[in-house]
Specification:
With 92 residues, this protein is mainly α. It is built from 4 helices and no strands. The two termini are 30 Å apart. One of its GO terms (biological process) is negative regulation of DNA-templated transcription.
């Protein structure tokens, strides 16, 4: 069972909170709110997404990568290479 399935409800709750934050940002832009308020909303959304990423990435490392190199490559490459790929995709 995948760690995202085990933690499905917690992850969905986070995504729903992020959705609410993005909708609040949309309302602020539509309502032509002050740019400082909009910037604050954007940073809040970014922080929430980073938090979600951190939780999923940490679980992925703990679940799939910690002992992956000793599993004869059944995880699609070395654990180190997988982690590097994930980090690089984050910074694109």
């Amino acid at each position: 069972m995948s760690h995202t399935v085990r933690e499905k409800q917690k992850l969905l709750n986070r995504v729903r909170r992020i959705k609410g934050q993005v909708e609040a940002l949309e309302r602020a832009l539509d309502g032509e709110h002050d740019c400082m308020e909009i910037l604050q909303q954007i940073t809040s959304c970014r922080g929430a997404m980073n938090g979600l990423l951190a939780v999923v990435l940490e679980d992925h490392i703990q679940t799939h990568l910690v002992d992956a190199d000793s599993d004869d490559g059944h995880h699609g490459g070395s654990a180190k290479a997988q982690l590097i790929d994930v980090v690089h995709s984050y910074f694109k």
